[in-house]
Amino acid sequence: MTPINKNSEPLDAVLRGAMRGRPGPETPECADANALAAYSDRSLASAERERLETHFADCMRCQVLLADIARADQQATSARAADEVPWYRRWGIAIGAIAAVAAVVVFISIRRPTNDELQRDQLVTMAKNETSAAVDLAGAKPAAVSSEPAAARAAAPIVAAAPAPIVAAAPAHPSALAAAPAPALSAPAQASNAFAMNEAAPRAQAMGAAVPHAMARSAGAAMVAEGGAGGANVGAQGFGKFAGGFIAAPGGTSATIEARDGSVAWIVGRNGMVQRRDADGAIRVQPSGVTTDLTAGAAPSGSVCWVVGRSGTVIRTTDGERWTLVTSPTTENLAAVSADSADDATITTAGGRSFATSDGGVSWHPQ
Amino acid sequence: MHSAGIAEGAGVDSFIDALHAGDLSLAIACMAGESAPWEDFITSFRPALYAAARAIAGDDARGREIADSLWAEMYGMEVRDGRRRSILSYFHGRSSIMTWMRAVLAQRHIDYVRAQARLQPLDEQFEQAAEGIDDHADASDSERARYVAMLGKALDAALKSLSSRDRMRMAYYYRHELSLKEIGRVMDEHESTVSRRLARTRDYLKGEIERALREGDKLSGEQIRLCYDFAAGDLQIDLTRALPDVK
């Protein structure tokens, strides 16, 4: 801010030049530090102030001192002002924070359900379907099922009645399972608990398409079967997650296969999609070498994973990175796989047939 | 040398009321050599003191130097009769202790500048002025000196006719180059008031100068313009000498 818009005129240059000079020595009339400070703080009585101003008007030394004090004072004031957050900025920050929280709330409320939530919901749906199917078929009453394996074992016998049975004991969501009616099937009881069901499942007689999906866990490795062949009811499929196990994709979109040691997981899905998720959560795509839909997998370790899919597709990695196509004993859609190592695996078709290998897929033996 | 006024009679009450008692107590406690008040003093004022020193010196290194020096003097490096002698004994409580420290820093700095100037007869500004561009090199030196002298005389008379506060305001603006806000703080005026009064004073000076040149020296408008150009261009030192009472 300038007092006048004429600072570039010759008069201003003359005034600047005319007023130049060096501060002189201190004289008896000059103010001492107390007087200068008191004048600057406006602590002086008016008479004393006027007396000093008469001197200041023509004393360059005192002018310089007062100017220096004013500069230092102004600098301190500016620094304080810079440190203080003005009210509108404080409110701005608060409003911004509130808006961010609101945005998160809105996002959470409208976002798509997560896999875990889908898994929970679909397990419930699946269990209900199982229950109704079993009641219809055998007139048996549904039995209560707890997520606790022991409780499940103590419950009414569960019998596999579908091409592959449903295991409703996902540890990740016990509450959902506890709330769901237990699948109760009319076929002769072959398994004494839910975890054993998959042993009997492939051998069980298919009972139509009412319960098309199955998830089972076998010997620590797991498999997911997706109904797709034979008019299976896709809408009833579900997710399961087990240590060293599997997850099938709803509608065949994707399945998550977690290594038994929990170090990594693979996500497989349509058109040969394979993604690896590391322990730190980083996800990267891995070329699978196939383009068929992948439906299930089993990972006995962080470096070994077997994945199966439609049209008898079997792929495997033994270093956790590179995937190779394994010669398959069938062209049927594969619905499940269990594996104990890079050599030992059992695959199950959607029709319930199983094949096992103990040499990494070089040879398969019907089970 | 003038110190802050000594109150007498009825002024005693107002004098006491105006004292910055808290700062004065702190200074006395520090002078007494007590550690707790000194630590409080350090905590409260050390950063501000160094910031003030930087602002006054306009240079970090020099600012730190004068601040260190003052800090040592306030602590009292000299021991006499078993007691440290602190410069805080000169603080009378007529202002805040921070403003007093700024005043002392300013005094130290100006003394330093004067000492440096004695070693360097002409400062850079004056050298630059002497080497300034002359747009009227064809004019004779004697004629130019005559024009400058006439303008100097008219300016001198005009400045002397100003009130003390008007002269102070002009000096702070043109000589010390304070901002309007800073001038307002010194003169206890709002910056808009400062601006308005500066403009008024400047117009008054311009009118007085040109009236003196036109009526006293019988110069034409063109000659008055030459006066300004010559004076602004190269002869500031002469003009400075023409001004009264520049100490």
Write the element-wise H/E pattern of chain A from the N-terminal end onward: HHHHHHHHHEEEEEEEEEEEEEE
**Helix/strand-derived class of chain B?**
mainly alpha
Provide mean pLDDT of chain B, rounded.
Answer: 81
**Biggest interface and which pair forms it?**
A-B, 68 and 91 residues
Total beta-strand segments of chain B: 2
The termini of chain B sit apart by 15 Å
**Shape, principal axes of CA atoms of chain B:** elongated
Strand arrangement, largest sheet of chain A?
3-4-5-6
- Residue fraction in strands of chain A: 15-25%
Structural class computed from helices and strand pairing of chain A? alpha+beta
Overall mean pLDDT of chain A stands at: 68
Description:
The complex is a heterodimer of chains A (367) and B (247). Chain A is α+β, with helices and mostly antiparallel strands and 367 residues long. Chain A contains 9 helices and 14 strands. Chain A has a 4-stranded antiparallel sheet, with no helix packed on it. A 4-stranded antiparallel sheet of chain A has the order 7-8-9-10, with no helix packed on it. With 247 residues, chain B is mainly α. Chain B has 12 helices and 2 strands, in the order ααααββαααααααα. A two-stranded antiparallel ribbon of chain B has the order 1-2. The longest helix of chain B is centred in the C-terminal third of the chain and has 26 residues. Chain B is elongated and about 75 Å long. At the A-B interface, helix 1, helix 2, helix 3 and helix 4 of A face helix 1, helix 3, helix 5, helix 6 and helix 7 of B.
